[in-house]
Write a structure and sequence with these properties.
Elements (H helix, E strand, L loop, with lengths): L1 H19 L4 E4 L19 H7 L5 E4 L2 E4 L15 E4 L5 H6 E4 L7 E3 L8 E3 L2 E3 L2 E2 L7 E4 L4 E3 L2 E3 L2 E2 L7 E4 L4 E3 L2 E3 L2 E2 L6 E4 L3 E5 L2 E3 L2 E2 L7 E3 L3 E5 L2 E3 L6 E3 L5 E4 L2 E2 L15 E3 L10 E4 L5 E3 L4 E3 L56 H9 L19 H9 L7
Parallel strand pairs: 1-2, 2-4, 3-5, 4-7, 5-8, 6-10, 7-11, 8-12, 9-13, 10-14, 11-15, 12-16, 13-17, 14-18, 15-19, 16-20, 17-21, 18-22, 19-23, 20-24, 22-25, 23-26, 24-27
Antiparallel strand pairs: 28-29, 30-31
Length: 406
């Protein structure tokens, strides 16, 4: 009885606490009706900093598609130590990411973290472009004594004009960067894409870091110094002379990644990733880091799936223990390397009727198909992807019968 009362008491306290800390959603839309706006869905703020300033810890700021530029309250965004999620309307949709743009137009950075923000601060689903700093490091994002989580962002064409970390600079930070493209950024000194110093403890997961440059030609992709950086399921190629600079030795641990000129570590490769479109000396805004595939590649420009003559060796080459997430079938039941790995835009691989992934379609696959006959669910045997396994799927299975991969 006592235990029951105690339990009820705990539940009461927990529920009251959750009510008093109820998180709010604050909306931003550069095309909203009023300036500054109130942050409601009907009357959103038009400038991102206004929303951040009105937020309390645990609130979420949702930013509508549009280009956030010009106004000082759309750059050098600072959280003053609050724990806030700042995201686009759908960080998992690369089309939304491409259309939700923070562009300081070389007048500042996008984000300036310097007030002890922790890993529960999240920046998700933005394109951060044309940021620049003339007073130090970190062209798009600066983090000192702060550890925001950065995911599903495209960080492109930013510059650290007088020092380091053209894309992102970390100093005494414990950030995680996940499913980000960091490309075409430049630094005056070192770390064209990312610079990491002063006992930082960084995780870089499923990122594509390419086409960055640094004038000192050191760590043109990533520069690490007296820090711990773990890089997993990532592609680091086409960054000038040196992809990763490990200044003190042993700072960088790399696994299941494609690193130009190689890097020791489990599952690493050094081979052309077959990007859909990339020229290190070309214009970054037309680069496309989807991986070429004979079995299906998402073409974001035409909103369709296409096939290539090549199939990227980075497909199905990520950590076998990583969740392949939203990768469309056939996904090899293994995550791809790079920024689209684990997402619904991951390049496909193999025959869709090869359910056991043994490189041939035969009676073993037919047995699996039969087990699902007339199942009303979305499963890999539902080849037409309409929620039921029936004669339409049988026809598709028959078309692939006895397929064998060379
Ligand atoms: Ca895969
Ligand atoms: Ca098979
Ligand atoms: Ca079906």
């Amino acid at each position: 009885m006592f235990r029951t009362k105690a339990l009820l008491g705990v539940l009461f306290v927990v529920s009251v606490a959750s009510i008093s800390n109820a998180a709010n959603i604050i909306y931003v839309d550069v095309n909203g009706p009023n300036t500054p706006g109130t942050g409601s869905y009907e009357d959103p703020f038009r400038r991102i900093q206004d929303a951040i300033d009105s937020a309390d810890s645990n609130d979420t700021v949702i930013v509508a598609e549009g280009v956030y530029t010009g106004d000082p309250n759309n750059r050098d965004l600072h959280l003053d130590g609050k724990t806030i999620t700042i995201r686009s309307t759908d960080p998992n949709d690369p089309n939304v990411v491409a259309n939700t743009i923070i562009d300081p137009n070389h007048l500042g950075r996008s984000f300036y973290f310097h007030s002890g923000e922790d890993t529960n601060c999240v920046v998700a689903g933005f394109t951060l472009q044309n940021g620049a700093t003339d007073d130090g490091s970190g062209g798009a994002i600066y983090c000192r004594d702060s550890s925001p989580t950065i995911r599903n962002c495209v960080i492109i064409k930013n510059t650290a004009m007088f020092w380091s970390g053209g894309g992102i600079y970390f100093n005494n930070s414990e950030s995680t960067i996940r499913n980000c493209i960091i490309a075409g950024n430049s630094a005056r000194a070192t770390g064209g894409g990312v610079k990491c110093v002063s006992c930082s403890n960084l995780a870089i997961i499923n990122c594509t870091i390419s086409g960055n440059s640094a004038e000192w030609q050191q760590g043109e992709g990533i520069f690490c110094f007296e820090s711990t950086v773990s890089i997993n399921n990532s592609i680091i190629r086409g960054n000038g002379l040196e992809q990763i600079h490990d200044a003190t030795g042993g700072d960088a641990t790399v696994t299941y990644s494609d690193v130009q000129n190689g890097w020791s570590g489990t599952g690493n490769i050094d081979t052309d990733p077959c990007f859909a479109s990339f020229d290190a000396n070309g214009e970054p805004s037309i680069w496309d880091f989807h991986l070429q595939s004979a079995y299906g590649r998402c073409d974001p420009n035409n909103q369709t799936w296409v096939t290539d003559s090549n199939t990227s060796p980075c497909i199905d080459a990520g950590d076998p223990n990583s969740d392949w997430g939203d990768e469309p079938w056939p996904n090899g039941k293994r995550i791809n390397m790079g920024a689209y790995g684990g997402t619904n835009q991951a390049s496909m691989n193999g025959n869709p009727a090869d359910f056991d992934i043994d490189r041939s379609v035969n009676f073993v696959d037919f047995a699996k198909f039969s087990d699902k006959w007339f199942a009303q669910e979305f499963c890999i045997e539902d080849l037409s992807n309409n929620g039921v396994v029936d004669f339409g799927d049988f026809r598709m299975f028959a078309e692939n019968w006895l397929w064998q991969r060379e």
